[in-house]
């Protein structure tokens, strides 16, 4: 059995540890705090008088006593270390030892060795990018520096420590800078990591959300049915051989867990072209009218299409899509609600926001261009391009204003992808 790996990364003070620990408990998996390993190295170095800047000496020290850094071995000395390990001093020292590539290599090897069935939840800075680039699920937890400083301030105040708010904020900014700008494994969001912004939400809610995604990602992936396999295989072959076709950003698509892909809509080619190129089985939300013709209706139904009702039934019209997402599946949706060849993006309908909020599903934006000119693309006069974006966190509330605002945010992301496409083709105009 392959171990299930949940990678949680993010800056200091965003709620990473609380979330990771909470999720691990709910999933019944061990929790590994990789930051504690860096802190333990710093502790050992300070204790033995090894300079935090001396990489060779640090590596030699780790090689002499690797057990101390293993989370199992660590637990023996944890008790006495606990207080120091969580101090700001330890964090500072850890962030300095974390700058050395050779030392990181040692720790990364130990971290990888911990992935044994049934799996684990590991948190850190480079878990989804370096330690487990093929993790089953990646979550990037973040919050504004101000929100993180405020939390830290309240934490210290509760402990009876008198501290200065501004000083904490400055410290957090400095640590971010060091973690993000270092040459080896800097803190960056993995391209397929779901963003979990904890600025406006409580710890409990963050644990709920992350556990929801993770428990669905742990389910075995349904085998792709023959109709879908044939249809998508045929579409990919068609695109590859007969069209001038380019696809970008597939590495931003999470392979497991619930997902909505939201794309602009130009032509009836969009659902098959976008769907067939996604690395997982998609379900398609389509206007109920399309199912009226019995033959065509049966065909698209066999190809994972779900009818959606609009107008007065809009609220229940998304039920089919909700069912797919509640089982951990993936749905392709066109927020503009109709085909649009104007060249401008239309304002979105609220459906994408409502669906994401109701099922707490992340949304990956997608942008397609050129699909209204299939013939010209076959003559290599127009390039059809599809670009995918990283998954956005779902809206927290299902109320009208919030889901509408969220749908607009999704369209903004689609527009940004289109600008990215145009920028990229500036130097490489289609022939
Ligand atoms: O998560 P933490 O605050 O305990 O981490 C302490 C320092 O360790 C942090 O500033 C950067 C470093 N670190 C790292 O470089 N890579 C990791 N996977 C975890 C922590």
Describe the structure.
The protein is of the alpha/beta class and 431 residues long. The chain folds into two domains: 4-217, Rossmann fold (3-Layer(aba) Sandwich); 226-430, 3-Layer(aba) Sandwich (Glycerol-3-phosphate (1)-acyltransferase). Helix content is 49%, strand content 14%. It is built from 18 helices and twelve strands. Strands 6-12-11-7-10-8-9 form a seven-stranded mixed sheet, sandwiched between helices. Strands 2-3-1-4-5 form a five-stranded parallel sheet. Helix 2 (34-48) packs across helix 4, helix 11 (226-242) packs across helix 12 and helix 16 (351-359) packs across helix 18. The longest helix has 26 residues, at 400-425. The radius of gyration is 24 Å and the shape is elongated. 44% of the residues are buried. The structure holds 2'-deoxycytidine-5'-monophosphate. 2'-deoxycytidine-5'-monophosphate binds next to helix 2, helix 5 and helix 9. 2'-deoxycytidine-5'-monophosphate is lined by residues 12, 34-35, 38-39, 91, 94-95, 98, 124-127, 175, 179.
So, the CATH homologous superfamily of the largest domain? P-loop containing nucleotide triphosphate hydrolases
What portion of the residues fall into strands of 2 or more residues?
A: 5-15%
List the strand order in the largest sheet.
Answer: 6-12-11-7-10-8-9
Largest β sheet strand count, sense and barrel closure: 7 strands, mixed
The geometry reads as elongated
What small molecules does this complex bind? 2'-deoxycytidine-5'-monophosphate
